Amino acid sequence: PGQFTASMTAINPCDSTTATVDNIKIFTGPKASFTVNPDSIGCINTPFTFTNTSITGYNSSCQATTTYKWNFGDVSAIVTLLTNATQTHSYTTSGIFTVTLIASNSCGPDTFILHVCVNPPPVPNFTTNPSIGCSSLNVATNNTTTSANGCGPTNFTWSITSLGSICNPTGNWAYTGASTSSSINPTFIFN
Question: Is the Cβ–Cβ distance between 100 and 113 less than 8 Å?
């Protein structure tokens, strides 16, 4: 990028003569890029922040005039800006979305693409087997939680609350085997 002068000298046995062309101007196109927070995985109706980290180009007046077009990959309108302002965007449905930033000036466009994955809230559900029995009852769980279009693992935290009884006011229980409070399908023993 910049301004240049080109010279050429023609030489033959009679003489040498130089010709010059001035005012060769080279402009630069922008280089599109952005970062996203949270880092590519988020939740429905929770905003993502897209920070425009593009490198601007320069036009014939040495101005960094660049147009930015954001396409968030959903049904929202394309956002066109003349500044590299940070954008926030929330998704109302789950899925994987292609986010595109096109930075352009008189030298042409440059495109940068990232994918974001939007999770729905999980719908927790489980069954126990058996759910009635005598003391020292071993109970297995069957976790049927759904998290459609999940972008990452769903973590679980199990807890047991003793409601007590006349015969056993405190109620005792423990995890069995390798089960813990974060197991997908823990097993318990109730005493």
Answer: yes
For residue 158, CA distances in Å to 31, 125, 181, 186 come to 49, 12, 5, 8
Query: Cα separations (Å) of 10 from 6, 13, 28, 125, 157?
Result: 13, 10, 32, 86, 83
Whose tokens are 């998704």? That residue is 91
Across the chain, mean pLDDT equals 90
pTM, two decimals, is: 0.74
| Of the candidates 100, 68, 98, the residue with the CA atom closest to the CA atom of residue 85 | 68
Give tens-digit pLDDT for 12-47.
999 999 999 988 888 889 999 999 998 889 999 999
d(CA 66, CA 58): 8
DSSP state of 180: -
Of 143, 146, 138, the residue nearest 126 (C-alpha): 143
Give the whole-angstrom CA distance, residue 8 versus residue 75. 57
